[in-house]
Amino acid sequence: MRDQAEELRLRMLRNHSQLGRSIAVVSGKGGVGKSNFSTNFTSMLSAQGKKVVLIDMDIGMGNIHILLGKSAPHNLKDYLVGEKLLESVMFDGPNGLKYISGGSGLNGVLEWSDSMFERLIEAFEFLQKSYDYIIFDMGAGATSQTLDLLVALDDIIVITTAEPTSITDAYSMMKYIYLKDPQKSFFLLCNRAFSKEEGEDTTARLKLAMSKFLSKDVVVLGSLPEDPTVRKAVQQQVPFSILYPQSEISKKLSSIVSKFTEEQLEAVPSNPSKFIDKLKSLFKGGGK
Predict the structure, then answer these.
(1) Sheet harboring 185-193: ordered strands across?
(2) Residues 182, 175: Cα–Cα separation, whole Å
(3) What's the rounded Cα separation, in Å, for the pair 287 and 278?
(4) E strand or H helix at 55, and its extent?
(5) Distance CA 287, CA 257 (A)
(6) Contact 166/202 with Cβ under 8 angstroms?
(7) Taking the mean position of all CA atoms in its chain, how far away is CA 276?
(8) What does the DSSP assignment read for 159-212?
(9) What is the pLDDT along the chain (288 residues), one digit of tens a residue?
């Protein structure tokens, strides 16, 4: 029989191993299908039995709930100002995923009150203990606040298209984050590719640029094709992976999700204290 101290130690180890990873989905510019990827990606992860929460960080322009065909009467701001409990701003999405809408009025991140900051930290600590993945759908482009927030997260999924401006902006964002934290893990995806070759060429160019100029390796997840079923799914406000599970893009996404989860099995465990310390540095001005 194990004594109580041993039981407690094993329980703590189990709890530590179950801490969720914080992941940002980003793009250098708008119009690349980032939010569509986020909703379908998280939906597939949830369908595989993962506990996932999707947080819409496209402040004032959030559309996650629309793509999910859901409503969000309350949002992250309502929680931060103390008007709602965290549970009250979390809503059910397809396949068991949870989502939080960003709402509006959150632009002045570094001007938040101490109480708002403390509530944010409490929320992230709770979510890390309760979910396998906390996925942040970031706004297109970058601000100083969002870029600093990205540095606090575990992994970055970068969405690009084959357009030269999209490739350039994707590289610039990865470079900025890398210079802040060289250990950051990057996962790269080409969306809306008109051919398999175009997708492979796009990701290969970015991977080479990161290796050549920054000596940084990135994981290529693959590419998703330009597919008319995406537009149809958006019009019906249902993720394409649910509405058209046998479509080419859904099958491609399934392979991407599998590759991502396999990579995560080999990843360094999420360090909650590092995550929280970085957030504190950001909001107390230490990261500036």
Answers:
(1) 91-92, 98-100, 52-57, 133-138, 21-27, 155-160, 185-193, 219-225
(2) 9
(3) 8
(4) strand 52-57
(5) 32
(6) no
(7) 17
(8) EE-SSHHHHHHHHHHHHHHHHH-TT-EEEEEEEEESSHHHHHHHHHHHHHHHHH
(9) 334 444 444 444 444 456 889 999 999 878 899 999 999 999 999 999 999 999 988 756 678 888 998 888 888 878 888 899 999 999 999 999 999 987 654 454 435 577 877 887 889 889 999 999 999 998 766 666 667 778 888 999 999 999 999 999 999 999 999 998 999 999 999 999 999 999 999 999 999 999 999 999 999 999 999 999 999 999 999 999 999 999 999 999 999 999 999 988 777 676 655 667 777 776 665 444
> Do residues 125 and 15 lie in contact, with contact meaning Cβ atoms separated by under 8 Å?
no
Half-sphere exposure of 112 (CA within 13 A, CB side): 25
Q: Which residue has the tokens 């999420």?
A: 270
Pairing mode of beta strands 98-100, 91-92: antiparallel
Burial, 276: exposed, middle or buried (Cβ in 10 Å; 0-12, 13-18, 19+)? middle
How many alpha carbons fall within 13 Å on the CB side of residue 18?
Answer: 13
H helices of the chain, where? 4-17, 34-47, 64-67, 76-80, 114-130, 144-152, 164-180, 196-214, 228-236, 240-243, 248-265, 272-283
Bridge partners of 280? none
Q: Tokens for 83?
A: 């008007």
State whether residue 133 is helix, strand or coil.
strand
Is residue 103 within 8 Å of residue 97, measured between CB atoms?
Answer: no
Give me the residue label for tokens 């249902």.
238
In single-letter form, the type of residue at position 8 comes to L
* Residue 273 identity: S
Tokens found for residue 186: 């990057």
